[in-house]
Design goal:
The complex is a heterodimer of chains A (225) and B (429). Chain A is of the alpha/beta class and 225 residues long. Chain A is 35% helix and 27% strand. Chain A has a single domain, classed as Rossmann fold, CATH 3.40.50. In chain A, the strands form two sheets. In chain A, strands 6-7-8-3-9-10 form a six-stranded mixed sheet. A four-stranded antiparallel sheet of chain A has the order 2-1-4-5, with helices on one face. Classes of the chains: A alpha/beta (225), B alpha+beta (429). The A-B interface holds A 54, 57, 59-60, 80, 83-84, 86-88, 90-92, 94, 96, 98-103, 107, 111-112, 115-116, 159-160, 163 and B 3, 6-7, 10, 331-332, 335-343, 345, 422-423, 426, 429.
């Protein structure tokens, strides 16, 4: 049996908008992710998909529930440690191509390595290796605004891979791409999953993407459907 | 580091405006600070000198304005020298180096001491307590029994008139021999011509119509032999004898008193005051020192106050710029934090960016300020004293200060940026 990377039970989260108006984004969601999984969280808008991903990615805290990430009890973790775990165990791919506009493709990838504690030399080598793997060997010194949407998303994937994360969390990774490029990106992610046993957990409402996944977790109204 | 510069020039116009704001503040700080440094140097030299002696002025003279022009007769000085605790009394005469131009009686305004002839009482054993000897750049200082035509000149006088030891220097129509050049003091003596008292007295008398006529009468009488005098009628003879009583030695404008070792100068000056209050004004070192301190404190407060205002304005413009650029880059901060940046690393990046804005503005302001100072000093050096004193320590502190100003102005917005909620920051677009 493969290793459990994410084990979360009964996650609850509400947002207090005004004194009398609260949104219950999660009402008790449970989720397990095994090493090597290629899974998607799906569901209609407002079902709590993104909130769940943010909690699993340590960007937000649940009100209640249990959450263990790669053997670490996240609920008992100190506040200041979240960024170290984010840097070393997690990779993020966002919907927009969230690259830093003033940095080149290579520098964007290297920056994540810096937060993961790599030396300058290691970062440089790792960034070049990953950008080669993404087929961007000719675009390394280009700024994001000189790259196409697909190319930008490949840089973001390279950035997510830098610190050899246990799991990569992707929030609508193809959300802003045309369908041909979307397929290309999904194929790339699948290849990384197949060849490197890289674990992926993504949020999507695109059925094509969901169908490409080995496993889907369906949410409805803040609960497992 | 490169990222900081790239971020700064994302909004070129805004960064340039902010940098300009800092540069203007630092420019004001550099110029005014250098002026204050120069002023303080001059004041402290003057203070050191004036607190090393008890100053005597004839009654009828106003210390602050120097008006009145009264004289101290020799016999008063001789009596003061006998007061308990007094070591010696040195008489002195001070007159402007150049005769006043009848076409321009007011003359140009100058910063500090104008070129002055300082008559030295070489016969007296008087010495200023704080300023016993002067360092010489060349030659020697005047000494006892020096020839009446020998002079020592201050640093600026030598520079302005191209004087070397051995040169002749014409003062008010008379030739003098330069025997020494005093090293730069950045205070009064730079503008002095030191001259034996007798020669200075003669120049003073020549410049004063009243004293001049007295002297002429006296000389006239001196030329009449006693035998001839005896032949004159009684009334005329009396008149001439009175004229003869005019003595060069009675022409003294000011005197300095030194006290014996172990004596309290304030006690000695009070003693002199008690005995001679009808004849002289006594200025005690302590009192004069306090007066000088007060004047320079006010001057410094005005100068530094205005510079500080300029800097506060600059500081606020950095804060404003940083708050603006942080709210523009909210999403970017969110991403950095999502991929593992710690709060501290986000805060450090922004703080350094503000520090760099500060230091760039500081360097520009310092550069322009230094240029202005060098140009103005060059110009004023020809017509008197230099107004500014550029000290390397001060310049280095100005640059450090501008960096620290940036850091202080940047730290608050930066900390705010680092505490930003990641989820909110990422959603923002």
């Amino acid at each position: 049996m493969s290793k459990t990377l994410i084990h979360a039970v009964g996650l609850k989260k509400h947002y207090q908008l005004t004194k009398s108006n609260a949104v219950h984004a999660l009402r008790g969601v449970s989720i397990d992710v095994q090493e090597g999984d290629f899974s998607a969280i799906i569901g209609p808008s407002g079902c709590g998909k993104s909130t769940l991903l943010h909690i699993l990615g340590l960007l937000d805290k649940p009100d209640e529930g249990e959450y263990t990430l790669d053997g670490i009890d996240v609920m008992k973790m100190k506040n200041g440690d979240a960024n170290i775990i984010r840097a070393k165990k997690l990779g993020f791919i966002f919907q927009g191509f969230n690259l830093i506009p003033t940095l080149t493709a290579k520098e964007n990838v290297m920056q994540a390595g810096k937060y993961g504690g790599m030396s300058m030399k290691q970062r440089k080598a790792r960034a070049e290796e990953l950008l080669n793997l993404m087929g961007l060997q000719d675009r390394m010194d280009h700024k994001p605004n000189e790259l196409s949407g697909g190319q930008q998303q490949r840089v973001a994937i390279a950035r997510a891979l830098v610190n050899r994360p246990a799991i990569i969390l992707a929030d609508e990774p193809t959300g802003e791409l045309d369908s041909a490029t979307s397929l290309e990106i999904i194929e790339l992610l699948k290849k990384l999953n197949r060849e490197n046993n890289q674990t992926f957990l993504m949020v999507t409402h695109n059925m094509e993407v969901a169908n490409a996944c080995k496993k889907t977790i369906q949410l409805k109204d803040g609960l497992n459907a | 580091m490169m990222e900081i510069f790239r971020n700064m020039f994302r909004r070129k116009g805004r960064t340039i405006l902010t940098v300009t704001g800092i540069a203007v503040g630092i420019f004001a700080f550099t110029v005014m600070g250098s002026m204050a440094l120069r002023f303080n140097k001059m004041i402290s030299g003057g203070k050191r000198f004036i607190t090393g002696q008890i100053t005597l002025m004839p009654k009828g003279t106003d210390f602050a304005t120097g008006t009145g022009g009264a004289l101290l007769p020799l016999d008063v000085l001789m009596r003061v020298a006998k007061v308990d605790g007094v070591q010696a009394v040195g008489a002195s005469v001070e007159i402007a180096l150049k005769e006043i131009d009848p076409d321009d009686p007011i003359g140009g305004a100058s910063f500090g001491v104008p070129p002055t002839i300082e008559g030295m009482d070489l016969a007296s054993s008087y010495e200023n307590r704080n300023w016993k000897t002067m360092d010489m750049k060349a030659g020697r200082m005047l000494a006892k029994d020096d020839a009446d035509t020998n002079i020592a000149v201050g640093y600026t006088i030598a520079a302005d008139n191209d004087l070397e030891v051995g040169d002749k220097f014409k003062i008010r129509g008379k030739d003098f021999d330069v025997v020494g050049i005093v090293d730069q003091t950045l205070t009064g003596p730079d503008q002095y011509v030191f001259m034996p008292l007798k020669s200075a007295r003669e120049l003073l008398i020549a410049s004063n119509p009243f004293l001049k006529s007295l002297k002429e009468r006296s000389d006239e009488v001196a030329s009449i032999s006693d035998a001839d005098l005896a032949k004159l009628p009684e009334a005329t003879r009396q008149q001439l004898l009175q004229a003869k009583s005019f003595k060069l030695e009675d022409v003294t404008q000011m005197a300095a008193v030194s006290w014996e070792d172990g004596q309290d100068p304030d006690v000695v000056s009070n003693r002199i005051k008690d005995q001679f209050k009808d004849e002289v004004l006594v200025l005690s070192p302590t009192k004069l020192g306090e007066t000088i301190d007060k004047a320079s404190a006010v001057f410094n407060a005005v100068i530094l106050g205005s510079a500080v205002i300029a800097l506060i304005v600059g500081g606020f413009s950095i804060i404003n710029t940083m708050i603006m650029s942080i709210s523009e880059r909210k999403r970017e901060i969110g991403i950095k934090k999502a991929i593992g940046a710690s709060n501290r690393s986000v805060a450090t990046d922004f703080t350094l960016e503000a520090g760099v804005i500060g230091i760039v503005g500081g360097l520009i302001g310092l550069g322009i300020g230094t240029l202005a100072i060098v140009l103005i000093n060059h110009k004023t050096a020809q017509s008197g004293a230099e107004i500014f004193l550029l000290s390397p320590t001060f310049m280095i502190s100005v640059v450090l200060f501008s960096f620290v100003l940036g850091i202080i102005a940047g730290v608050l917005p930066a900390v705010r940026a680092s505490r930003m909620n990641v989820v909110d920051a990422i959603r923002e677009l």
